[in-house]
Amino acid sequence: MKNRLSKVRLGILGGGQLARMMALKSHEMGIKPYVLSAHPQDPAAQITPYFIQGRIDLKKDLKKFLNKVDLAVFENEFLDPVLLYEASIASNTPVHPKPKVMHLLQDRLNQKKLLKKYKIPTAKFIEIHSHKQIHTLPNFFPKGAVLKKRHQGYDGYGTLIVKNIKEDKKIKEFLNKKPQVIVEEYIPFKKELAIILVRNRKKQIIELPLVETHQEKACCVWVKGPCRHQKKDPLVKKLKNMMNEIHYEGVMAFELFETKQGSLLVNEIAPRVHNSGHYSLDALSEDQFSLHIKAVLNMELVSPVKNSGGFAMLNLLGEKNPSQWLPPAGATLHWYGKTENRPGRKMGHINNLDSTPNKALTTLLDFKKSSFRT
Ligand SMILES: Nc1ncnc2c1ncn2[C@@H]1O[C@H](COP(=O)(O)OP(=O)(O)O)[C@@H](O)[C@H]1O
Ligand SMILES: [Mg+2]
Questions:
Q1: Is residue 96 helix, strand or coil?
Q2: Which residue in 63, 244, 261, 275 is deepest, having the highest Cβ count within 10 Å?
Q3: Cα separations (Å) of 342 from 21, 236, 317?
Q4: What domains can you pick out in the chain, each with its CATH number?
Q5: Is the CB of 268 under 6 A from ligand 1?
Q6: Distance between CA 290 and CA 295 in Å, rounded?
Q7: What pTM value is reported for the model?
């Protein structure tokens, strides 16, 4: 495979920052990244000569694009699975992870059922079909509940946290707008954690370090690691089993809760590269984007080594162009090149390495306080 890599045409569906980082890494690996995206100024479109303008939700565009590449990956699991499957068959071009697996994981209800099937700990949940069920919620979830849209939720859009379950006005409003939801028990977690696993068709699975993630208004602000947890290994064993059973290919990211009692619960699964893994660009000998590409090409996967005792990542949310400031000495800036800057929008991130996770993070938080408007 090594000698033939330069001939590989990797299709990337979507033009955002995840697509951009996959495309940048493909260039470094000698692979040609073809990007299908709506506008030439999109983050991934800017950095490859193999940009193809088109819509990922149009069969004609998808088919045309897939005809030009050897295989394809996606940066976002909310594509139409039937369109993708049909375009993949018609063009004889595989898409990884498979559209069937993407379909399974793009639905929060199916995710929860999958976790249950493989005995992976997760918060208690029920399906909601009608308003009539609202009055039953206090029985199921006396300590509060979280309503989640089954499809297309991200960064808290599509999530409603209701600590006082008897206040059903908000719940009714949410259900009026988003009828397909699951309701989960509210977890007063101690911390949010995340872990990335990578699997190829040879059934090799590697594990990246466990990290702590910090969300504000349900959007990730920072990540630090590596973390330890005594329940990590038994959890990872179950996650690997699940990945084998569904014949998964590529990076799979897991968002976790550490409960006050010290258990680990899986909150959410992403069948793709993930914000919680951006630290790997600088902190590991191999990053999540290269590993995703290697996994879908069924190349050998080798566990990356850490480049320092600790690392941290700070998301640049709604920040202005970096030409007006400089990252702290020793830290690395990753700017996504977005043309529009909206409050809270992910514009880039900074990675920092130090002897401990806390030292690496403190430098970034001090920098944020002194340099940014937020
Ligand atoms: N069951 C829960 N209990 C407490 N907080 C939750 C629960 N589910 C989600 N949250 C909070 O809301 C955030 C967003 O929810 P999540 O399920 O990750 O959806 P998404 O990231 O797709 O918007 C989580 O990172 C967490 O901070
Ligand atoms: Mg989440």
A1: strand
A2: 275
A3: 21, 37, 9
A4: 5-105 (3.40.50.20), 124-185 (3.30.1490.20), 191-371 (3.30.470.20)
A5: yes
A6: 9
A7: 0.96
DSSP string, 190-248: SEEEEEEEEE-TT--EEEPPPEEEEEETTEEEEEEE----TTHHHHHHHHHHHHHHTT-
**Beta strands 250-258 and 264-270: pairing type?**
antiparallel
pLDDT at 262: 96
The β-bridge relationship of strands 310-317 and 346-354 is: antiparallel
- Strand pairing class (32-37; 9-13): parallel
Question: Whose C-alpha lies nearest to ligand 1, atom 1?
Answer: 186
Report the amino acid identity of residue 313: M
**Crossing angle, helix 59-68 and helix 81-91, to 10 degrees?**
40
Write down the pLDDT at residue 322: 72
Q: Please state whether the peptide bond connecting residue 226 to the residue before it is cis, i.e. omega within 30 degrees of 0.
A: yes
| Structural Rg of the chain based on CA atoms | 21
Ligand 1 centre to CA of 249 (Å) is 25
Instruction: Please list, residue by residue across 332-351, b when 16 or more beta carbons sit within 10 angstroms of its beta carbon and e when fewer do.
Output: eebbbbbeeeeeeebbbbbb
Q: How far apart are CA 370 and CA 161, in angstroms?
A: 32
pLDDT along the chain (374 residues), means of 10: 73 98 97 98 98 97 98 97 97 97 97 98 91 82 91 88 81 79 95 98 98 95 98 98 98 98 97 98 98 98 98 94 79 95 94 98 93 62
Distance 3 CA to ligand 2 centre (A): 39
Q: Where are the alpha helices (DSSP H) in 279-356?
A: 280-283, 288-296
Q: Looking up tokens 């630290």, which residue turns up?
A: 279
CA–centroid distance, 124 to ligand 1, in Å, is 13
Block residue for tokens 């949410």 = 174
